[in-house]
């Protein structure tokens, strides 16, 4: 199963720890993820929760990037995309050094998935692996009917991620544009924030469209180009 996942699930290039923008009172999150990947004592597991657009997927993929940079094996498991494969998707992963399991709350209402997650957490711990878990709700959510699973979700540090404020959204757009090879000035950033959907996922997809439009038209990204792309169906 690991080989299949490695072939089919690609990490986004921009989802690095350097590009993650924590809230001012959560500046320790990137260093905690690094400590998890490095296998530092006391950080065997990390649970991230928050609403859409709070950075859960970014951090899950960033942990895998960090593991790869250290020469360690890693697997990113977005359960929202893998649910059709059933709980068997969690089998045979105990040899992977870092597992990043996203969208936990998409599957954990079902007893068979709860049993599989319970077994996975135990296997990772037994093999001295590292586990990053991400979900839209807190780890002691009552919808997890299996008490032993709820207790294991709380084995490590827990962070409640919050939505990006205006300043961090601006910084995210400018970093995202730079990673794609084009600058984004203040007028263009302001226009995007006023006229585009403000959730991070939509904004990153819009930057991809702007990059493609800029290359095709051989024009730099300006407000008129942004307006034209936004007007497209």
Question: What would you say about this model in short?
Answer:
With 233 residues, the chain is an alpha/beta fold. It contains 10 helices and 5 strands.
Q: CATH architecture of the largest domain, please?
A: 3-Layer(aba) Sandwich
Share of helical residues: 40-55%
- CATH homology group of the largest domain: P-loop containing nucleotide triphosphate hydrolases
Sketch the topology as an H/E string, one letter per element: HHEHEHEHEHEHHHH
Principal-axes geometry comes out as elongated
CATH topology of the largest domain: Rossmann fold
What do the pLDDT scores average to? 89
> What's the domain count?
2
SSE class: alpha/beta
Strand content: 5-15%
Please give the largest β-sheet: 5 strands, parallel
Rg over CA atoms: 19 Å
Q: Number of helical runs? A: 10
Q: What is the tally of beta strands?
A: 5
Spatial ordering of strands, largest sheet: 2-3-4-1-5
Distance from first to last alpha carbon: 38 Å
Low-confidence stretches: 1-8
CATH class of the largest domain: Alpha Beta
Topology record:
Layout: H1 2-8, H2 29-38, E1 45-49, H3 56-69, E2 74-78, H4 79-82, E3 98-102, H5 111-126, E4 130-135, H6 147-153, E5 157-160, H7 166-179, H8 186-195, H9 200-217, H10 223-231
Parallel strand pairs: 1-4, 1-5, 2-3, 3-4
Protein name: DnaA regulatory inactivator Hda
Organism: Acidihalobacter prosperus
GO molecular function: ATP binding; ATP hydrolysis activity
């Amino acid at each position: 199963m690991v080989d299949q996942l490695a072939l089919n699930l690609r990490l986004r290039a921009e989802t690095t720890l350097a590009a993650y923008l924590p809230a001012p009172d959560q500046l320790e999150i990137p260093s905690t993820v690094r400590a998890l990947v490095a296998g530092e004592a006391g950080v065997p597991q990390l649970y991230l929760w928050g609403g859409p657009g709070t950075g859960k997927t970014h951090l899950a993929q960033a942990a895998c990037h960090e593991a790869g940079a250290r020469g360690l094996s890693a697997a990113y498991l977005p359960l929202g995309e893998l649910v059709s494969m059933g709980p068997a998707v969690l089998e045979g992963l105990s040899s992977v050094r870092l597992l990043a399991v996203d969208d936990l709350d998409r599957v954990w209402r079902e007893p068979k998935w709860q049993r599989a997650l319970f077994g996975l957490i135990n296997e990772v711990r037994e093999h001295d692996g590292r586990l990053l878990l991400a979900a839209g709700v807190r780890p002691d959510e009552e919808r997890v009917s299996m008490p032993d699973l709820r207790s294991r979700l709380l084995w490590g540090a827990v962070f409640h991620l919050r939505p990006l404020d205006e300043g961090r959204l601006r910084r995210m757009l400018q970093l995202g544009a730079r990673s794609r090879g084009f600058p984004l000035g203040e007028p263009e950033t302001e226009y995007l924030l006023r006229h585009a959907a403000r959730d991070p996922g939509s904004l990153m997809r819009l930057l991809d469209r702007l990059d493609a439009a800029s290359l095709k038209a051989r024009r730099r990204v300006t407000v008129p180009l942004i307006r034209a792309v936004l007007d497209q169906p």
